[in-house]
Amino acid sequence: MPLSESPAAVHVALLLIPFDQALQNVTSDDLRLLPAAAGKTAEPLLQASTVDRLRDILRRSAELLRETGTQVLSGDENAFNAVARLQRQDADRVTREQLSKQARRGLEKAWSTGDFASVVEILEEMPALGPLDKERLQYARKHSDRHKM
């Protein structure tokens, strides 16, 4: 893929447009991932709920851009790839978290209604179980019509 067509190139282009227009398109997440372009660890999520915190965030964002943005701004393909990899990892993590929350809601509903077959099904699909879930699974197996013989 030509560099000018890469998603990261779009982000760089956004950084080059006038500041007031850029504010409409560039997120704090874009700035947070810039250190990856320099082979460093991504910054934590940048959030502000007060004016003072916003000033700190803007100052830190400017520092990040100065320290690590040069590789992206100069068109370094490795930098674009590093940022894209982090974006995919973040998206995968968010997807896993959402699926886990959805499964938890289903588990709680099944448990509260006594649908032990569904409890077994949900818990058996979870990648790791804590002590409470292990006890629930054992109990649900004993009381599930599907697992009785």
Provide keyphrases for this structure.
149 residues; mainly alpha; 2 domains; 8 helices; elongated; disordered N terminus
Morphology call: elongated
Average predicted confidence as pLDDT: 74
Q: Structurally, how many domains make up the residues?
A: 2
Number of strands: 0
Can you summarize the main beta sheet? none
N- and C-termini, Cα separation? 58 Å
What ranges have pLDDT less than 50 throughout 5 or more consecutive residues? Answer: 1-24
Q: How much is the radius of gyration in Å?
A: 23 Å
Instruction: Indicate the structural class.
Output: mainly alpha
Task: Give the helix tally.
Answer: 8
Task: Describe the protein's topology.
Layout lengths: L6 H10 L2 H4 L5 H5 L1 H4 L13 H23 L3 H37 L2 H10 L5 H13 L6
Helix pairs in contact: 6-7, 7-8
Characterize this entry briefly.
The protein is mostly helical.
Descriptive report:
There is one protein chain. The protein is mainly α and 149 residues long. It has two domains: 3-98, no CATH class; 114-149, no CATH class. The chain contains eight helices and no strands. The protein starts with 6 loop residues before the first helix and ends in a 6-residue tail after the last helix.
